[in-house]
Amino acid sequence: MIPLEMFDSLKNAFPPQRRDVPDPGPDGQRQMGFFTDTSVCIGCKACEVACKQWNQLPADGFNFTGNSYDNTGQLSATTWRHVAFQEKIGETGSRWLMMSDVCKHCEEAPCQMACPTGALIYNEFGDVYLQADICNGCGYCISACPFGVLGRSQEDGHAHKCTLCYDRQKGGEIPACAKSCPTASIQFGPVDELRARARQRVQDLHAQGRTEAYLYGDRPMGDYSALNSFFLLEDHPNEYNLPERPPQPFKGMKGRYAASLLTGLALSVLSAVFLKQGVKGVADAR
User: Fold this and answer.
1) Same-domain check for residues 175 and 258
2) Residue 13: inside a domain
3) Hey, CA dihedral for 245, 249, 252, 255, is it positive or negative?
4) Are 182 and 46 spatial neighbours (Cβ–Cβ below 8 Å)?
5) CA separation for the pair 28, 6 (Å, rounded)
6) Taking every pair of C-alpha atoms in the chain, what is the biggest distance, in angstroms?
7) Is 164 helix (H, G, I), strand (E, B) or coil?
8) Domain that holds residue 277
9) Would residue 245 count as lying in a domain?
10) By percentage, how much of the chain surpasses pLDDT 90?
C-alpha cells in the first residue's frame, strides 16, 4: 500500500490551473481584451504597422514567402500582430480569408503556468503580460502555447509577445492596432461587453444569410479555457491557422505524476528483487 502522503507531497509540483487573475478593483476595472471580426477585415495590415511602430519592433524583412501576399508569415518575438491571407477557390469562384492574429490572452494560459521565473503574469487588466527582463529564455512558454504566439528574440534571447499595449491602457488609450483598424475589425474593451457584442454580430450575419459565421474562443473549447482575445470566423479554424480543439498541456497533470511515481516505485521493487536474487545466486554458487 502506497501512503497517500507520498501523493500529497507532490502537490507543490503540480502547475496551478490558474494563477492570480486580479478581481475587479475599487474602480470597477474589468478584464480587457480583443474581439476580431474577420468578416470585415480587408487585409490592409494597418494593425501590423501600428503595432510595430508603437512597440518599436524591428522589421522582419520583405521576403516573399510564396504562399500568399503575407510577408511576415506568423506571430513571433518581433511580430505581435499578424494578418493572415488565405485564398479559397471553390465552385463559385475564389475569395480571401483574412484575419489579424494576436496573442489570445487566455483565461488559463499554459504559457503563464509553464513559466519558471514568474516572467509571465496577469496584470490588473486581466491580460497575460510578459516581463522580458525577468525571462530567462528557457522557452517553456513557447512550447506550452498551442497557438504559436510566443517567440524568442535573437537579440536578447528572451521571449516576447503582445502586451495588449499595457502602457497605452495605463494611460487610458486603446491599443495601437485597434486604434488604427479602418473597418473596426479589431475591437477593444471589457471582455464581457465584447462577447455580448460579438454574439449579436453573429446573429446579424445569420439574418443576412451568412450562416457560416461563428465565434471562436468566446467560450471554453473542451479542456481549454475561453480566450480574452477571440474571433468571428466564417470557415474552419484550421483555415486561419487556429487549432479546432486547442490542447491544454497541464490537463491531467496529477494523473501523469501519479503514474510516473507508481512506475518508478514498481521499477525500484523489481530492481530490488532481481538484485536480491542475484546476490543469493552468487552465495549459493560459492
Assistant:
1) no
2) no
3) positive
4) yes
5) 43
6) 92
7) coil
8) 4-8+252-285
9) no
10) 62
- Please tell me the distance from the alpha carbon of residue 21 to that of residue 32, in angstroms, as a whole number: 12
Closest to 68 in 3D by CA, of 80, 45, 49, 84: 84
Q: How far does CA 131 lie from the centroid of its chain?
A: 16
Q: How many CB atoms lie within 10 A of CB 142?
A: 18
Which of 163, 188, 149, 186 shows the shortest CA–CA distance to 44? 186
Residue 142: name the closest of 255, 249, 242, 16 by CA.
Answer: 249
What is the CA 120 to chain-centroid distance, rounded? 12
In angstroms, rounded to a whole number, what is the distance separating the alpha carbons of residues 240 and 219?
A: 18
> Rounded to an integer, what distance in angstroms lies between the CA atom of residue 9 and that of residue 170?
41
CA distance 165 to 173: 9
Residue 96 domain flag: yes
Range among 14-23, 229-238, 242-251 with highest mean pLDDT value: 229-238
pTM of the model: 0.77
| Pick from 208, 206, 187: nearest CA to 196 | 187
Q: What residues are paired with 36 via a beta bridge?
A: 186, 231
Q: Helix, strand or coil for residue 175?
A: coil
State the cell numbers at 186.
479589431
Scan for cell 530490488, then name that residue: 272
Give the integer Cα–Cα distance in Å for 38 and 270. Answer: 59
What pLDDT, in 10s, does the model give residues 112-122?
A: 999 999 999 99
The answer to whether position 246 is within a domain reads: no
What is the number of residues in the chain?
A: 286
What is the rounded end-to-end Cα distance, in angstroms, of the chain? 37
Q: What's the CATH code of the domain at 180? A: 3.30.70.20
For residues 259 and 188, membership in a common domain is answered with no
| Cβ-based neighbours of 282, under 8 Å, separated by 6 or more | none
Whether residues 159 and 281 fall in one domain: no
